[in-house]
Each structure stands twice: as C-alpha cells, then as structure tokens.
Amino acid sequence: MLKKLLDWDTDTLIYLNNLGVEQYDTFWSSVTNISTWIPLFLLFALLLFVKYPRKEALYRALTVILLAIFITVFTNLVKDGVGRVRPNNDEEINMLIRVLREPQSFSFFSGHAASSFSICTLVVLFLRKKTNLAWAFYLWPVLFAYSRIYIGVHYPVDILVGATVGSLTAYLFYLSYNRISTPYLG
Fold it and tell me: Which residues contact 124 (CB under 8 A, 6 or more apart)?
C-alpha cells in the first residue's frame, strides 16, 4: 500500500512538474518566495486592526504569529524525523523533473504548505464574519504550495499533508483563542 502511494506520488510529481513552461519559471520562482507575499501579510494585519478593536486585534495578530512560529518548529521537527529526500536531490527522478531550486533540507512535509495554510486558515476564521472576501485568501496557499511542485522541491503528498496539518493546527489555535483570549477580552 505504501509503495503504491509513493509510486503515485512520484508519478504525479513528474506529471505536474513537467507541465511547467520555461516562460512561467520567473513567475513561479517569485510565487515560491515568502517575501513576495509580504503585502498580503500586511493586508491581513490591516484587516484585523480595522475589523476589531485595538486590543482584540492585537491578541488575534499575536495568535497568528504564535501559530507561524509553532508550525515552523513542528514542521522542521517532522522533516528531520522522517528524513524524506526532496525530489530535486533524488537521483532516481531529478533528471525527470524541472528543478528550479535546490534546497538540501528534507521534504516531508512541506513547510510552505503547512505555514501558508495555517496562517490563511486562522486569518479566515478570524475574518470570515467580518468580510465576504476572506475565503479568497486561500488563493495564496494554493499558489504558494503548488509552486513547490512546479520548482521541483516537493512531492504532492508533502503538499497535501502540509496543507492538512497546517489547516488543522490553525483550527486548534482558533479553538484555543476562543477558550483563552475571548473570555479575557470580554
């Protein structure tokens, strides 16, 4: 069963990665950089401070920051524990895919997917009743996560697990916020 899953994972990576076209490489290389998304993070912060009273916005923003730190540490612990080689470093397939980056760290699970889905999910949970556009924020983690397949540094399962872990972790942080901070804020 695991062998079938890993074979599917490799075949799907090769297929999706090879859909890439050289003229879009600059776009996807830009999408995969965290600094590209700084304006979106500023928008998240701005919306929190516009839609909530200052103290509450500050607590919500702090919760997002704590989530980002937690998911980064957790992801790195899992990556080091699992030790899955990235596709760009796997000699069996790296000649079959287009590689635009060559990180040396481990692959499972994707930190880009986990962090982007966790931050986005928490922000959406905080803002969904305040703005109708909150769900559109999911465009960011979808593009961000897919860029990792496009540039050849993650398998699809890395992305799917990262997105799932990130989303579930965000939901747990949201529940914790409601139990701890909401009563304190009144």
Answer: 134, 135, 137, 138
Residues 6+ apart with CB under 8 A from 146: 16, 159
Are 170 and 125 spatial neighbours (Cβ–Cβ below 8 Å)? yes
* Residue ranges in 18-110 assigned as alpha helix (H): 25-31, 38-51, 54-82
CA-to-CA dists, residue 65 to 17, 59, 62, 156, 183, angstroms: 32, 10, 5, 27, 20
Q: Read off the pLDDT of residues 5-33 as tens digits, 9 standing for 90 and up.
A: 999 999 999 999 999 999 999 999 999 99
Largest CA distance in the chain: 58
Check pLDDT > 70 for residue 186.
Answer: no
Summarize pLDDT for 152-185 with one digit per residue, the tens.
999 999 999 999 999 999 999 999 999 987 777 7
CA 80 – CA 14 distance, rounded (Å): 24
- The first and second tokens of residue 79, run together, are 């990556």
Whether the ω angle into residue 109 lies within 30 degrees of 0, i.e. cis, is yes
